[in-house]
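Hi Q.,

Before the meeting this afternoon, I wanted you to have the NAI prediction in hand. No need to reply - just skim if you have a minute. The sequence and ligand are here:
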Amino acid sequence: MFDLIVIGAGPGGYVAAIHAARLGLKVACVDKGALGGTCLNVGCIPSKALLESSELYYQNKKGLAHHGIQLGEVGLDLSAMMQRKAKIVQTMNQGIASLFRQHKVEFVSGAARLSGPGKVQVGEQQLEACHVLLATGSVPIELPGLPFDGRHIFSSTEALAFEKIPERLLVIGAGAIGLELGSVWSRLGSQVLVVEYLDQILPGMDREMAGQLQRLLQRQGLSFQLQTSAKGAEVTKGGVKVQLEGGGKESAETGDAVLVAVGRRPCADGLGLEDLGIARDQRGRVQVDDQFQTSIPGVYAIGDLIPGPMLAHKAEEEGRALAELLAGRPARVNYQTIPGVVYTHPELASVGLSEEGAVAQGWQVRVGKHLFRANGRAHCMDQIDGLVKIVCDAVTDRLLGVHVLGAQASHLIGEAVVAMEFAGSAEDLARTVHAHPSLSEVLKEAAWAAMGP
Ligand code: NAI
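Predicted structure with the ligand bound:
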């Protein structure tokens, strides 16, 4: 008998399992796949490995003569690049296994099914616990006219492991996956066209920042067709022909590979939620209360299975909070301060409200901006593209949203998250001493600009 059985060993599940075990609970974690879930095995980590490798290749290919560095011919060994990615994943898999051993979390390999409250069936094995946590994540959404076939039409999973570089890659959806994997293959030599249904890339992100990123990506060679949707595809001799519709007109584009990245859906397939009567909303998301409890007492859910951004760190935070709650401690997740990062080059990171989002909510906003090209360190690093935009309440100066488009934005956004977590103001950021020379000064200067004259 366990205190807690966690179903799913992704960043939500494994963090919850380890944290609960640290707090003294007897924990089992079940997964039918490898430790680390989508994020570690076919998501965040392998994509970042390829983003790093492809960017290095791209930079070296362009040449470093302006640094005074002369290079010989730059070649590409795709299989070595893929092996490096696999090695990183393997190292992190082993890291989780070792944390499980260290904290005495029992890992059970297999597909789990809830056979009753507190009862989990894994093959022949019946496990029992006071609490069960569902953390089974999400899977890519398939478009009706473009089903994944593993040969021409792919999801992100396969696009992380192409054996050869597509000559022409069509990407459907300008979300994080489309832009990140589109960037990888574009840097490695593919001609990439990104097709997006809405009128901006990264819908939901600050419109101005998304527009700036689109301009930079176009300069790198990616093409975009906005307000266009993919309707269907047919395999021809020349590749896959994708039918598009935009502005009332129909057209077609042909590529040798199509990446469909139009979102993900919660995945609880085979868990037996219906038999137990666990309530879900129209989009298939498990409904939970503010303590992550489903409609069945003792059964909880976190991460991509429940509403909120489908992000590893959101799932992780929820997992940690749930472990604390089960151990009798107070815990909460602040959903207002969850950063989002798109790992293109440069990266786009953001926390809080976009300018238009803040206005739509009725805030009277003041905006401050500062460009990376006005920063000395950015010049030394040869990373002068981008800007920081700070949105604050015009009345109280409180930070409402911070947006960073620039080198190392994923790291820079951290201080804005902390400032917002403490209900900080633009003045708090502006009057905080920042190291000189450093990219963080761009944030500080944007904060000064947001404070007004
Ligand atoms: P997404 O929901 O972020 O973006 C999908 C895009 O596809 C949207 O812009 C949508 O308007 C567009 N779209 C939908 N149907 C279309 C059609 N028929 N034709 C053309 N465009 C269409 O989904 P994505 O990029 O697949 O990512 C899935 C989830 O994974 C998201 O929640 C994302 O936040 C998360 N993720 C986060 C990453 C990060 O934080 N760096 C990296 C990868 C994924």
